[in-house]
Amino acid sequence: MCAKRLINAVLRGVIMEKMWTGRFSKQLDKLADDFNSSISFDCALYKQDIQGSIAHAKMLAGCGIISEEESKVIIDGLKGILSDLESGKLAFDFSAEDIHMFVEAELTARVGDVGKKLHTARSRNDQIATDMRLYLRDESGEVVALIKQLLGAIVEQAKKTKTYIVPGYTHLQRAQPILFAHHLLAYAMMFVRDAGRISDAVRRMNVSPLGSCALAGTSYDTDRTYTAKLLGFDSYCLNSIDGVSDRDFCVELMSAFALVMTHLSRFAEEIILWSSWEFGFVELDDAYTTGSSIMPQKKNSDMAELVRGKTGRVYGDLMAMLTVLKGLPLAYNKDMQEDKECMFDSLRTVKNCLAVFAPMVATMTAKKDNMYRAAQKGFINATDLADYLAKKGVPFRSAYKTVGQIVAYCISQDKVLDELTIDEYKKFDKLFEEDLYGEISLSACVQKRTSAGGTGARSVEQQIKFVEEFIK
After folding, report:
1. Environment class of 212 (CB within 10 Å of its CB; exposed 0-12, middle 13-18, buried 19+)
2. d(CA 306, CA 300)
3. Averaged pLDDT score across all residues of the chain
4. Which neighbouring-strand residues pair with 314?
5. What's this model's pTM, rounded to 2 decimal places?
6. Backbone angles phi and psi of 213, in degrees to 5
7. DSSP tag of 392
8. Residue in 171, 219, 293, 412 annotated catalytic
């Protein structure tokens, strides 16, 4: 057994000399070799690389390019490598240039020269493009699942708070009374769109580059439709140059991820404000907050703050990707090796943020009384008072001016609209009657918003149902 391992190690060592060394008279400089290597990060693609290689070996046999027996040996060898990597029996050799060279070297060490036939009618250029699409297709599904978990948390909070009245804001000034559930569901709509964008990107991405080879295709009579079907692609790339040089799918996904982070960051900002003493609208669970090393009274919303901070990181990853691509001539260039680290970082960051955000929202406690007290101040029922006059025939602009004067009067008297007497109201317009108090009560202001998509109870119920159906 030890002898066999030694032989395999020697074979790998010979192969690791670089599979492209035939043209060269001297070895690559050690610093240049390290600089050129990508195995330290593209090892994440090992499953997809082996998956693509198995499909390629099947196709080569199906087209008579290699024998069925050779294909079986190659496939069994690849399956063994996958099993050993996943069990920990086999470790990545970081002296390999990339994941493709590692797998091929390990395969050849295990099965001999027949392993060298695997690379017939393909190139690392179409390999990596295929690996990336397979990997991102899988990972995108996980991101959508995490978004749905967050949507579920928002819906449950909306159900619990669908009678809670809170000030709605514009310009961070109290504007109109709304249901807290309505505010939460605004974020749900954003995340529904985010999931849709990611799914749309995956649909466009789901075409196979395998068989494009280096850039011009191959002289072998291959079957690209077969490999595309084996790998679950909808079709194959129609232009081989585009097949190896396209990274639109990375940019599109990273753009979608950047928008996910935009929405998470906006939501995080509000949670940070709401949980402050100045607002006091919500309290975060202890499991998602931290304390101060010097101030014992502090309860900091650090998870929300970190999400807000990590948004800039995902934006930076997107800009890095766009900048790598912006001046590249066709077809493949080594610059494109830079697609992976920023893509992986963007993906990992979004997944981590979504994973912590959903339970943070789920365990958040809304403070109904504090919300209501805040809604009583700020004259947020002023629009309803203007509507009251407008319904009695006063042009809205005139009613608007009258109510503005009433608000100024209230400020001077340190009162709110509900506290003025009917006599005080009649000084501004004789059309005011006792029924105005029912019109400007906060609950009435909210429930009168019966227009589609408004803050009324029926609309909120419809929104909850819509999001629940989307989650299903």
Report:
1. buried
2. 11
3. 94
4. none
5. 0.91
6. 60, -140
7. T
8. 171
